[in-house]
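User: My collaborator sent over this chain with a note saying "see what the structure looks like." That's all I know about it. Can you take a look?
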Amino acid sequence: MFETRFDCVKYIREMSIDLVDLKLVDLMGRWRHLSVPARKISEIVIEEGFGFDASNYGFLSVEKSDMILKPDLETAFEEEWDGVRVLSLICNAHTTEKGEPRFLQDPRYIAQKAEEYLEETGVADEIKILPEFEFYVFNEVNFNSEPFASYFNIKSTAMGWDAGFESSGYGNRPNMGYHATPPGDTLFTFRNSLVRKLEESGVPVKYHHHEVGAPGQVEVEVEFDNLTRMADHTLLLKYLAHNIAFKSGKTATFMPKPIENEPGSGMHVHFKLYKKGRNIFADPDGYSGLSETALHFIGGILTHSKGLLAFTNPSTNSYKRLVPGYEAPVSIAYATANRSAAIRIPGYARLEDDKRFEYRTPDASCNPYLAFTALLLAGIDGVKKKINPQKAGFGPYDVNFFELSCEERKKIKQLPHSLADALKELEEDHEYLVESGVFPRELIKHWINLKREREIIPVQKKPHPYEFVLYYDV
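Assistant: Without extra context I'll predict from the sequence alone. Here is the result:
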């Protein structure tokens, strides 16, 4: 939005901005923010940045936690909170060392370094990605987890679950919400508000619709953009979805699998590489119109897919979505128009500039800067090593994996069944992430330890309500 500090300060004064909000992603992929009265903002203040405690962001220990927030002026967008005009800026993290260099473990810096590395390799000079954002919007949710009580309770007028809601008679049938129309599509107005705000904030939207999940699953698809900006857009979309839902008396969740027996919410990621303005993934003579470079890129992602899940599917709940029987893939394979494969090549993408593939495994519980970067580096590794996905045994498989016999399915490599398994795979396979200097080795080790200590072990220690059903009377 702004090219210089002068432009930013001038806009604040002329547009009567009340508050400047500084947003920075933490290690787990959530925005934090610091709000500053607009009268305090000057060119010098923007240049100097704002001090903060990085230990609370999951990066550093308390004895060496002082860091500096510095806004990226190009990321500015406006908000309004109860009549207060707010200018929001996404920030980068800097250390307090001489010269205030960028913090190596800042996820946004890692994403920016990945884009620079892509150019250095000569493979391409630009990556463009497009995530499909699936999530649920409910009327109400209650949950608790204590030593003597554990439960969750979801209320959704879309299916008339709760006796306190009067049914309109137009509820969606289980697993049949795809492209539902109003009045069955009770979230049309919500999505319109979200899309309007995204467009106003500089995020162009391709389309939106009700998804398969009957009790309020929706999808919003934005236009292609480069890696760092798309990670920015991912956090902005989640932020807006949460707040618009909250202000309308609803609640939005990007949790991968909030409801049993309804589809989980994924974040399918589409990829294209460009060199001198040309989509180098296109080749009319290649498999499904893809070039050798595209197939090698696919080969890299599939080769490293087990460890990649530690970044693309980093929650214990992620693996309740990655189960057979739904469109979420469990097989490490590629094919054309096959939604049961980890990588699908869209059959309807026929024009040269539109040739691409999608990786269907990720979900939005990830830190998008780390997830998108890891996928790019895996793809580059495939191109550098010329990994042919067909020779590597990844397909193409133009069959429904869920309809194969157990014996046939055993021949196809499978994704990890748990976060613990994915972290173990990442421990054993991460050299392609660090050899480029993009991912700090310390961050990978820190990520693995945090996930084990703060998520896996606590979940393992807690009795599950269904265990009472199974075992209480033993």
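A starting point for your reply to your collaborator: Residues 316 and 459 are 8 Å apart (CA to CA).
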